[in-house]
Write a structure and sequence with these properties.
The complex is a heterodimer. By secondary structure, chain A is mostly helical. Chain A contains 17 helices and three strands. Chain A has a three-stranded mixed beta sheet. Chain B is α+β, with helices and mostly antiparallel strands. Chain B has a domain of 42 residues. In chain B, a hairpin with a 5-residue loop joins strand 1 and strand 2. The chains are: A mainly alpha, B alpha+beta.
Chain lengths: 338, 73
C-alpha cells in the first residue's frame, strides 16, 4: 500500500500506479477499428435474423443465429461503458453521441447510467455507500435485524434465477425506463429522451419491417446480453475473499485490487466482453480504454493478481451476505453456523 | 474521506467534478472534506482541469472557480 510522505501530507502513490496513467489515452484508430468489428457485424447479423423471420424460416434458426449478435451487443455495451468514462474516443462529444446511440440499442439511458456508474466508482466495496449502481447487498447484522418479510424479499432478490434471469430483463426493459432517485434534471431528461428514441426506433421498425419481426429478432438478443451483462457485473464485486469495508477503513487501492475481480477468460470471451474481466485494473484507472487494458496489465506486474477461477465463479452464486466480523461474503446456508 | 485517494500528484491547482461539471481549487475540495464543494462527490470523481482543457481547447487554462463547465463546451 502507498506510504505517507510526511506529516499532514497525502500518501505517495506507488510508481506502478502513476505509470498506469500513460494508458489513459483514447485513440481514434483503435476506437474506429473496434466499432468496425463490433457494431458493423452486429447490424449485419441483425439484418440476417430479420431476413429469416420475414422469409418464414423456423424460429429456431433465428434463435440460433441470435447468439453471435448477443455477444456483439455485449461488446457494444462495453463500448458504451467506455463512453461513460469519456475514454473511448479522444472527443467528449463523440463519446456522448456514441454512448447515447448505443444506449438506445441496448435500452440503456446513457446519461443516467453514466451518473450511476461514476457514483459506483466512488462507492464500490464501501459498506457505507451502497445503493447506487451496485447489486444490493446486506450485511449479516442488517439481514438478521430485518423483518421476516424483508428477509424473504431479499432472499428472492438474490436468487440466481431472479437476479440473472428475469431480473436482468426487468432492469433493462422496465426499471431503466424511469429516472432514479438522486439524479439531476439533465439525467432525468435523458431518460425520457432515450425512451423517445427507443419509441422512434420501434416506430420506424414497425413501419418498415413490422414491429413483430423486429421484436422477434431483438428480444432474444437483448435478453441474452442483459443476462450475461448482469452476471459479469455481479462477479466483479461479489466473490469469495472479496474486500468490503466501512467508510472509516475504506482504502482505494485495496478496494481496487482486492474488492474487484480479475476474471481471466478465454481469448474469445475476453474479446466479446471488451476486457471487462480486468476489472481490478479498470477500477484503478477507469479512464484506460478497454482496448488498452490488456497491454496495461501485461506491462504492469503489480496489477497481475490471482484471477477468479471458474470454480470461484460458481461459488460466488451462493454468496449473499457480508459478515463484518469475519470480513467475508457468506451464503444464507452459513447463517446457522454463526 | 478516502484513505488513499487516487488523485495523481501531477494534477494541477483546479479539479473538475465529473458528476456535476463544477470546478474548484484543490484547497476547496480539501475544505469540503475531500468532496466536490458543489455536489458532494468524492475525490475519485475529480479530474485534472488540464485534461478537460486538452479535450476542450476553447476552455480557459485557468477556469473560474465555482463555475460549471460541460464536458464538451
Amino acid at each position: 500500500m502507498p506510504k505517507a510522505n510526511g506529516a499532514g501530507q497525502r500518501p505517495q502513490k506507488p510508481e506502478w500506479y502513476l505509470g498506469l496513467a500513460k494508458y489513459e489515452k483514447p485513440d481514434y484508430h483503435q476506437a474506429f477499428r473496434q466499432l468496425g468489428n463490433t457494431v458493423v457485424p452486429l447490424l449485419g447479423l441483425l439484418a440476417l435474423m430479420l431476413y429469416t423471420v420475414i422469409r418464414g424460416y423456423r424460429y429456431g434458426i433465428t434463435l440460433t443465429l441470435s447468439v453471435v449478435p448477443a455477444a456483439l451487443l455485449m461488446r457494444s455495451f462495453i463500448i458504451l461503458h467506455d463512453c461513460s468514462h469519456d475514454s473511448f474516443f479522444p472527443s467528449p462529444v463523440a463519446n456522448a453521441i456514441l454512448g447515447f446511440l448505443l444506449g438506445v440499442l441496448t435500452l440503456t439511458p446513457f446519461g443516467q447510467w453514466r451518473w450511476s456508474h461514476l457514483t459506483h466508482h466512488a462507492s464500490f466495496a464501501n459498506l457505507d455507500r451502497r445503493g447506487v449502481g451496485d447489486v444490493k447487498l446486506l450485511t449479516v447484522e442488517e439481514y438478521l435485524a430485518a423483518p421476516r418479510l424483508q428477509q424473504l424479499i431479499y432472499r428472492f432478490y438474490r436468487h440466481p434465477l431472479l437476479l440473472f434471469g428475469i431480473g436482468s430483463t426487468i432492469l433493462f426493459a422496465v426499471i431503466y425506463r424511469f429516472p432514479i432517485k438522486g439524479t439531476r434534471r439533465r439525467e432525468r431528461n435523458g431518460v425520457w429522451f432515450t425512451n423517445a428514441a427507443i419509441l422512434a426506433m420501434m416506430t420506424v421498425a414497425g413501419v418498415t419491417v413490422g414491429l413483430r419481426p423486429f421484436l422477434l429478432v431483438m428480444t432474444p438478443v437483448w435478453v441474452m446480453t442483459w443476462l450475461v451483462g448482469v452476471w459479469f457485473f455481479y462477479l466483479q464485486h461479489q466473490f469469495k475473499g472479496v474486500y468490503w469495508a466501512r467508510q472509516s477503513e475504506w482504502d482505494f487501492f485495496r478496494a481496487s485490487l482486492e474488492g474487484s475481480s480479475y476474471y481471466q477468460l478465454p481469448k474469445v470471451l475476453q474479446w466479446i466482453t471488451g476486457n471487462i474481466g480486468l476489472h481490478h485494473l479498470h477500477h484503478l484507472r477507469p479512464r484506460i480504454p478497454n482496448y488498452r487494458l490488456q497491454q496495461a496489465l501485461t506491462e504492469t506486474p503489480a496489477v497481475q493478481i490471482a484471477p477468479l477461477t471458474v470454480r470461484g465463479n460458481l461459488t460466488a452464486l451462493r454468496l449473499n451476505l457480508y459478515d463484518e466480523r469475519r470480513r467475508e461474503l457468506i451464503g444464507f446456508h452459513e447463517l446457522k453456523r454463526l | 474521506m478516502e484513505q488513499e485517494h487516487p488523485i495523481d500528484e501531477s494534477f494541477g491547482e483546479y479539479l473538475w467534478c465529473e458528476l456535476c461539471g463544477y470546478v474548484y481549487r484543490k484547497t476547496a475540495w480539501a475544505a469540503a472534506n475531500d468532496t466536490c464543494p458543489h455536489c458532494g462527490a468524492p475525490l475519485i470523481n475529480a479530474r485534472a482541469w488540464e485534461e478537460i482543457v486538452q479535450r476542450n481547447p476553447r476552455y480557459p487554462s485557468t477556469p473560474i472557480e465555482g463555475k460549471k463547465y460541460a464536458l464538451f463546451g
